[in-house]
Amino acid sequence: MEYRSTRGGPAVRIEEAIMSGTAPDGGLYVPSSLPTFSIADFDGCESLAEVATRFLQAFVAGSSLGPQLVDICHDALNFPVPVRALESGLSVLELFHGPTAAFKDVGARFLAATMARILRDDRHAGPPATILVATSGDTGGAVAAAFHRRPGLRVVVLFPAGRVSTRQQHQLTCWDGNVLSLAVEGAFDDCQRLVKAAFADAGLAGGYRLCSANSINVGRLLPQAAYYARTSLEHYRRSGERASFIIPTGNLGNAFACVWARHAGLPIDRIVLATNANTTIGDFLATGQWLPRPTVPTLASAMDVGNPSNMERLRDLCEGQVERLREEVSAMAVSDEDIRATIRDEYRRNGSVFCPHTATALHAYRHLPATERSNRHWIAVATAHPAKFDTIVEPLLGIHVEPPAELAGLLELPSHFATIRPELAELAGQLAGWDAHG
Ligand SMILES: *Cc1c(COP(=O)(O)O)cnc(C)c1O
Q: 206-250: per-residue pLDDT in tens?
């Protein structure tokens, strides 16, 4: 299997697609052709790791990762992704049982497991590779956790000082050893600008072997497709029917992986994207005009994306035709007011506590046309544990939300980070200082 750029550059092997993140022409890597499976191909595969191994074999065929895939999947996908029945016709896919209690753990852990093996096999092994990641909250924690203590790899996390929640900041700064956490005096955009500047600086990029781990890396998308494969198969085996998914969406990485799984032949019916007040995708589906815009801050902050980058992959898949895109997905925008109301209503209805992101999916489900609800089985995707967003959820419900054990463990660890101004020289200084102290 080869990977090509959405912008037409030459095809590369998966090792290169994963290590470089984006294509040199600025495009995003996609498989040159999608494999197709029948349901019987998965006979005997039950756990996420088993389904993922079967599913991803085609995507790593012919690469150095092929023979290691069983190991990679068992290493990376070692936590449960249960489906919980909520009521007749509605279940919730809980993707938040990983180390940092959000679905990004799946992609980050798979990326770390593959990068570690690619570097180990690299005959020209040099200095450690450095993952440079800008985060507005969830990504940095998942990446730090996934790469922590991996030999040959280091992580530098840049987050906007004072603009992430207390718990998020703790998850970004509780690591030692191969993780360096830097608070940047500025906004998330300043962090991103710094990362771009570092990659564009030949001395820094080469000297530190900078790599990216953001959600456009194909190594994060592939394992996400695997949980849709596993969940849809499980539903099909039980009911003989295809499952429909409602997916909280920001940069479209999670939902695009579901589209891939369906194209690869998995029994998936409808895919509905639930967005917050950042409505670029919904507006595009409605008007056919792609108008990225500045990000609007919302309660579902991990979905605050005004220019969703994975849209480039979806448009590529549909060869730029809006009508085909409308057949792939539909979208519903959910306001902060509706997010609050949904968190309250769902708690009253079932005693279930949802995070603000997951609440967008529940709101979208409740507002589907009645026939859509009664004719299909819907699975709302729960992207984070509500305890990660305690400052929003607890006052709304007047209850204490207990963090899951792993998250609670992280919150006990000491926190340490340095603060820098949003200037490349300051970042370079931190990197050099870190080097000098081992
Ligand atoms: C990142 C994130 C999302 C958005 O996922 P995309 O792949 O960017 O669409 C939704 N919910 C949570 C909790 C997240 O961390």
A: 999 999 898 889 999 999 999 999 999 999 999 999 999 999 999
Cβ of residue 233 lying under 6 Å from some atom of ligand 1? no
> Which structure tokens are listed for 18?
């994963």
Delimit the domains of the chain by residue range: 81-102+219-405
Residue 133 pairs with which residues in a beta bridge? 157
Ligand 1 atom nearest to 249, measured from its CA: 9
pTM of the model: 0.95
Task: Name the CATH code of domain 81-102+219-405 (choices 3.30.565.10, 3.40.50.880, 3.40.50.1100, 2.40.30.40).
Answer: 3.40.50.1100
Q: Which atom of ligand 1 is nearest to the CA of 384?
A: 13
Query: Which of ligand 1's atoms lies nearest the C-alpha of 137?
Result: 15
Write down the number of H helices and E strands in the chain.
19, 13
The residues, ordered by sequence, that sit 6+ positions from 428 with a Cβ below 8 Å of its Cβ are 198, 201, 204
Question: Is 357 a pocket residue for ligand 1 (Cβ < 6 Å)?
Answer: yes
Pocket test for ligand 1, best of 362, 383, 385 (most atoms within 8 A of CB): 383
Amino acid (1-letter code) at residue 138: D
Q: What is the pLDDT of residues 156-213, one digit of tens each?
A: 999 999 888 888 899 999 998 999 999 999 988 899 899 989 999 999 999 999 998 9
